[in-house]
Amino acid sequence: MPLTLLPGTLADVPSFTSIYLSAFQDVIAHDCFPRTSPHIKEWWTSSNMDDMQHQASARFLKVVDGDEVIAYAKWNVPVKQGTETVLGGDNPDEMPVWPKDANVELCDVFFGHLARERKRIMGSRPHYYLEIVATLPQHQGKGAAGKMIRWGLEQADRDGLEAYVEASPLAVPVYQHYGWKVVADFTLEDRNHTESFMIRTPQPTSKDKV
Known about the structure:
Elements: E1 3-7, H1 13-23, H2 27-32, H3 38-54, E2 58-65, E3 68-76, E4 79-81, E5 84-86, H4 104-122, E6 127-135, H5 144-159, E7 162-167, H6 172-177, E8 181-188, E9 193-200, H7 206-209
Parallel strand pairs: 6-7
Antiparallel strand pairs: 1-2, 2-3, 3-6, 4-5, 7-9, 8-9
């Protein structure tokens, strides 16, 4: 059955939580958010629902295979509010209140560094930010992630804006395929984990080529 890309809805959020917790199996994901705690699942569901309802820049996407939601993504798009442009994502000066049973110290170190690096690299430049893309393990390799990635990149190219993403070593080649380039790295030595920060410059659209 063909995969279908659709906007995410509040009714989809519990499925998004399950997908996230299944898809991210690296040491950071497990150490930050122990899978044995029910509080972790509750927090991710509540957090995504809040973002969907109240973050002006958040764009949630899903890919369905028949009636099953098999993948989701969260893009942050630049939104004008008065004289300011809202870019979305974590505030480097104010980390979220992490759930009970989370490794708060590690969450603050890891996600805090990600947020600070994005601010350092991108500054206040309007850009598209792919914050999360996740696919159920049994459905990986079928093209679901590509559909959601291309959605955001087409918007960014249309607007003539850069796209930004953070990537694990396994994900770096995937994003390079779509035109992103590594501009910086961050390694947590005690967990042997490296995260790369990547920028993609806008590509000419078919309209530009006419």
